[in-house]
Specification:
Layout lengths: L13 E6 L21 E10 L5 E10 L4 E7 L3 E3 L4 E8 L6 E5 L12 E4 L5 E10 L5 E11 L12 H25 L2
Parallel strand pairs: 5-10
Antiparallel strand pairs: 1-2, 2-3, 4-6, 6-8, 7-9, 9-10
Length: 191
């Protein structure tokens, strides 16, 4: 029986990233390639691997680099409201990589800081409230914005007898009728 032996060849691999690379990423002649892109866009990378025997293989890889998240809008549904009246804070984001997390500070009492882009609330105390939102994308990149809300307290009631305006008008009308009747009676007795 004839035996064939296999000789092992030593192989040296080289890999090159070509085509349109993201800004901030250079070419490499290594089996590992990592970079920190400084520009957003859709990129096609070409990786070529060749051995010492002249054999090579090439593959294309698509890489999508999202722009940094920015807050394009952050505002309450109304800029001024009263206690107990509903208001909604809404954040609009452009760029970034979903999912996003939302952190609010400075919300009025009665408002709960939810991890949502829309936060409904019912303020329970008057005042001027500067509200800050910080949005962080799944890559850990953050953006923040601020707005404010003016909440008026209901007018305090005077420590009176607790009558409504209608009740007071009726009482005043009765007093006027009694006074006029008394003047008429007194005038008729003098004659």
């Amino acid at each position: 029986a004839q035996r064939t032996s296999r000789r092992s060849r030593s192989r040296t691999c080289s890999r090159r990233a070509r085509r349109r690379k993201p800004t901030g990423c250079g070419a490499t002649n290594s089996t590992n390639w990592s970079c920190k892109p400084t520009a957003s866009g859709n990129f096609t990378l070409e990786a070529s691997v060749s051995d010492a025997g002249g054999h090579s293989i090439t593959a294309n890889v698509s890489l999508l680099v999202n722009p940094k998240p920015t807050i394009t809008s952050f505002a309450p549904s109304v800029t001024s409201t009263g206690t107990g009246k509903p208001v909604t804070f809404t954040v609009t984001i452009a760029g970034g990589t979903a999912p996003f997390s939302y952190a609010y500070t400075g919300l009025p009492p009665g408002c709960v800081a939810l991890n949502l882009s829309i936060v409904p609330c019912d303020p329970t105390a008057g005042g001027v409230y500067p509200v800050l939102v910080k949005v962080t994308d799944s890559d850990g990149i953050s953006a923040q914005a601020n707005t404010s809300l003016v909440v008026s307290s209901p007018p305090s009631q005077s420590p009176g007898i607790g009558l409504s305006t209608t009740d007071l008008l009726i009482i005043v009308a009765i007093v006027v009728i009694v006074v006029v009747a008394a003047v008429v009676v007194l005038a008729s007795r003098r004659r």
